[in-house]
Amino acid sequence: MTVAFLIVLAYLIGSIPSAVWVSKGIYGIDIREHGSGNAGATNTFRILGSKAGAAVMVADMMKGFVAVNLSIFSAYSMKTEPFVNLQIFLGLFAVLGHIFPIWAEFRGGKGIATLFGMILAIHYIVAMSLVLVFVMMLMLTRYVSLSSIAASIAFPLLILFIFNAQAQELSYRLFAIATAFLVVLTHHKNISRLISGSESKLSLFRKRKSNQ
Question: How far from 68 is each of 52, 73, 79, 90, 209, CA to CA, in Å?
Fold first, then answer.
């Protein structure tokens, strides 16, 4: 398969609007009209409860994971620099699809779960380390936004100082640094609410309210 075809396919996979389909198909609402307005796992957890949120989170992660693994259909040899570069491009287009999904009027989520699925496919040890950072921060603060920011900042630190030997490609290092900046940038409203004390905390095991 050509690289262009794989990139388009990765975008289309990323565009699958998991949160919208779950909220409309099962609960009869459009998740984008409630809570933060994002079509992502966090807003689904908050509005529809843990079962729906977990389902959306897994689906969104799989979008990034599957998109990256489309690289095996390319002509590049595995673990070479061109192969890793293609993995990054495919993952990024899946994230782009999640944020601007063609199947849902280009109104998606922030792409954190899809981004994690992408990292999981490229370097699973780093991904598991980021999960540890995220969970620890979430347990301490119950702020999903702060946990996402902390994990994103930990990403380049892990790549540059701990897993440096296993991630030698310059593109992967630049991707890790760019990810930290982009996650912080996309969470600027959350940061403002965190500073003002108005950011919502998340109860992962709250059941969906009957009036929603």
Answer: 25, 11, 13, 5, 37
